[in-house]
Prior knowledge:
This protein is of the alpha+beta class and 160 residues long. It folds into two domains: 2-84, Multidrug-efflux Transporter Regulator, Chain: A, Domain 2, CATH 1.10.1660; 97-147. Helices cover 49% and strands 12% of the residues. It has six helices and five strands, in the order E-E-E-H-H-E-E-H-H-H-H. A hairpin with a 2-residue loop joins strand 1 (2-5) and strand 2.
Amino acid sequence: MTTSDDQGEITVSPQADLRSTLDIAEVAARSGVTVSALRYYEEKGLIASSGRRGLRRQFTDDVLQRLALVAIGRDAGFTLDEIAGMFGPDGEPAIDRALLSTRADDLDRTIRRLTVLRDGLRHAAACPAPRHLECPTFRRILAAAQRRPGRVSGRRPAGR
């Protein structure tokens, strides 16, 4: 469907008529996602605009829920490509439960590792030893860090 107004031509898909539309700036303001990220997400197929008003993309209001799902996926450590695969052909979430379970297990391991690291830092901060290398606990922490695979120059292994 195409209509015109004094600001220019509006082009909207037929299904968008059933829902209210938001301009890209409003989507950015309401979602906290930058306009450039919204454009990138559209390019990656994570979201789709419903049309344009002049040069500005328009989105149906359900884009906010979709962006919330993208945010949760990113927070959980999924790549954008993995997140894109979590939506069915109809645009509805179609998330593999086994994949979610695996990611939850990964997060549990990360939490355990970070808890040990936090406790070690607290110990190092409060340790009465004159130098950290004189503290047996700190030396054990260093030895454990040296044994961790993939830790070169503080970088994470590829693909993480």
